[in-house]
Write a structure and sequence with these properties.
heterodimer, A: 421 residues, alpha/beta, 5-stranded parallel beta sheet, 31% helix, 18% strand, globular, B: 163 residues, 7-stranded mixed beta sheet, 8 helices
């Protein structure tokens, strides 16, 4: 009889060549995809070159995406992106994205079918956990770990304990995956799942579109989680099959698998959420936000820059104007999303509303460029972090919310939900 | 090899944007990164430091981004080690890979005050507060990891063993 396992344990066991693993066990695993970006890959490339090794383990299984400081904001960042370009050419890296082919990595890789259910993915970017939405064990590492995997195709993990989050009931109007994950982080704190696997289940999750699942998995790291996992269902398989260019395996948690903790929420209790500065755990329901005037609103990022997010924003902005004196910046996360937004007429709606439409880039999310805040300014963003100085001046503020709240707030000039329009 | 230095205190959830803001990530040069270490928490921090000083912080130190620039900046600024009750997992892994020793101790984190002189024995996990005359306990650093730290991190260690 085989012992029950969680989805996290099953994927790690399969990639370690073992029948069974349990929390706390150290395992060496084969990596399906190793990812780096224009901030983290340059260090990994330098390390790779230092070792004198001539070949990467598999040119098909490394993804290099220039997305953070693109289009290059200065000479230094241009040189970093060039390092990726040169390395990709030298080693025949298949999945190198740059210029008009590039997009925000965690929106781009699933969209292109590069990451698939059942995969082990390591990325030198903390939001690599996004791919947990597909039922992949995907987690962020540093550049040194990336370099080691580029050489060997392997990495090591301590098998994490799992926490099961069950969402019961039915979603209230305007409540999205972003609100569910912000609410969850608000309840358990920014270290509530430290070193652990978060597994999202329950009737609300079963009904949730893929876009919302990506948003939730994306922010597992904001609770300290190692991965944020969804058990694949028909929606996952349909999404993956439409994009996959290689076979994949679906793993699901056994019903009697053991968890460090089971946390249950009732969706009826969950309003649209806003995370106040300077931690994602400082959440408040929209009804208790009070009067918070804004200088800037940003819609985009690996958390909420997908076409579904832009569709909600367009629905709210249609026939309305951005408040006087407020800057609304919209960044479609990939070129495909950009094209879809154009064909659907969303871009016209955004322009008519007075928004600035930027290229696919991480840009202002990490205070890189394209929407930096001055001293004392306040922004609401659909991004993932609101740390001190995250979007610019150390004395600026970032509030986190869903695209619906962001669009409504842009119109009203202060934080508000769509019901206030 | 023991670590000895003056303690600098920080709060809970010190994130990687605070350790090294993203606006400086257009380089990976350690000396350049060191100049801006903890700048948004205390612009004078790097100037006030002496080589070998230690950071004593609250829970979940290093949360946020996977940027290895964070432990690189701390190490290049001269920080001898970091003590906290817990570390964010990517930072935990990166710190050792970069050769920056870190110790988990809630007791030490709470009891050590800014300016206290602290001595840490990595092989026993003993943290001695020389100012207060008290001793706290953390997990010892195993011999292979101590060797890795002494070699200057994972890659330097691998290169040495390849020779």
């Amino acid at each position: 009889m085989t012992k029950p396992m969680t989805i996290a344990e099953k994927i790690l066991a399969a990639h370690a060549g073992l029948d069974y693993v349990e929390p706390g066990q150290l395992v060496q695993v084969n990596v399906d995809i190793a990812l780096g970006n224009d901030i983290t890959a340059p260090i990994a490339i330098k390390i790779f070159r230092q070792t004198g090794i001539q070949k990467v383990f598999d040119a098909q299984r490394i993804a290099l995406v220039s997305d953070h400081f693109v289009p290059n904001k200065d000479i230094k960042s241009a040189e970093q992106a060039k390092m990726l370009r040169d390395f990709a050419k030298e080693h025949g890296i298949v999945h190198h994205y740059d210029g008009g082919e590039s997009g925000v990595e965690h929106a781009l890789l699933p969209e292109k079918g590069i990451v698939l259910p059942g995969d082990v993915v390591i990325g030198a970017d903390s939001h690599t956990c996004t791919y947990g939405a597909l039922g992949a064990f995907a987690t962020g590492v540093g550049s040194t770990d990336l370099a080691a995997t580029m050489i060997t195709g392997k990495t090591w993990f301590k098998v994490p304990e799992s926490i099961k989050f069950i969402y019961n009931g039915r979603l209230r109007p305007w409540v999205t995956g972003k609100d569910l994950i912000l609410y969850t982080i608000g309840k358990i704190g920014v270290d509530g799942a430290l070193y652990q696997a978060m597994e999202f289940c329950g009737p609300v999750i079963d009904g949730l579109p893929m876009a919302d699942r990506f948003t939730m998995a994306n922010m597992a790291i904001e609770a300290g989680g190692k991965v944020g996992l969804f058990n694949p269902d028909e929606k996952t398989i349909e999404y993956a099959k439409a994009r996959a260019k290689r076979p994949f395996t679906v793993y699901k948690s056994d019903e009697n698998a053991s968890y460090a903790q089971v946390v249950e929420f009732n969706a009826e209790d969950i309003e649209p959420q806003v995370a106040f500065p300077h931690l994602p755990e400082n959440t408040r329901p929209i009804s208790q936000v009070g009067d918070v005037p804004l200088d800037q609103v940003v819609i985009g990022s690996c958390t909420n820059g997908r076409i579904e997010d832009l569709a909600v924003a367009a629905q709210i902005l249609k026939g309305r104007r951005v408040a006087q004196g407020l800057r609304l910046i919209i960044l479609p996360a990939t070129p495909t999303i950009y094209a879809q937004a154009m064909e659907s007429g969303y871009l016209k709606t955004f322009l008519e509303a007075g928004a600035v439409i930027g290229p696919p880039t991480c840009g202002p999310c990490l205070g890189g460029h394209m929407g930096i805040l001055a001293k004392g300014e306040r922004a609401l963003a659909t991004t993932n972090r609101n740390f001190v100085g995250r979007m610019g001046h150390p004395e600026s503020e970032v509030y986190l919310a869903s695209p619906a709240v962001a669009a409504a707030s842009a119109v009203l000039g202060k934080i508000a939900g769509p019901d206030s329009l | 090899m023991n670590i000895k230095g003056k303690a600098w205190k920080f709060g809970e959830n010190i994130d990687t944007d605070l350790i090294i803001p993203a606006r400086y990530l257009n380089t990976s040069d350690p000396a350049e990164l060191a100049k801006h270490c903890m700048e948004d928490a205390d612009p004078e921090f790097v100037k006030k430091l002496s080589v070998g000083d230690i950071i004593v912080a609250g829970k979940n130190f290093g949360c946020g981004s996977s940027r290895e620039h964070a432990p690189i900046a701390l190490k290049a600024a001269g920080i001898g080690c970091v003590i906290a009750p817990t570390f964010a997992r990517i930072f935990y892994r990166n710190a050792f890979n970069m050769g920056l020793p870190i110790f988990e101790s809630k007791e030490a984190s709470e009891d050590i005050a800014e300016g206290d002189l602290v001595e840490i024995h990595p092989s026993t996990g003993e943290i001695r507060n020389l100012t207060k005359g008290r001793t706290y306990k953390a997990q010892p650093i195993p011999p292979f990891m101590q060797e890795l730290i002494q070699d200057g991190g994972l890659i330097a260690h691998i290169l040495k063993t390849l020779k």
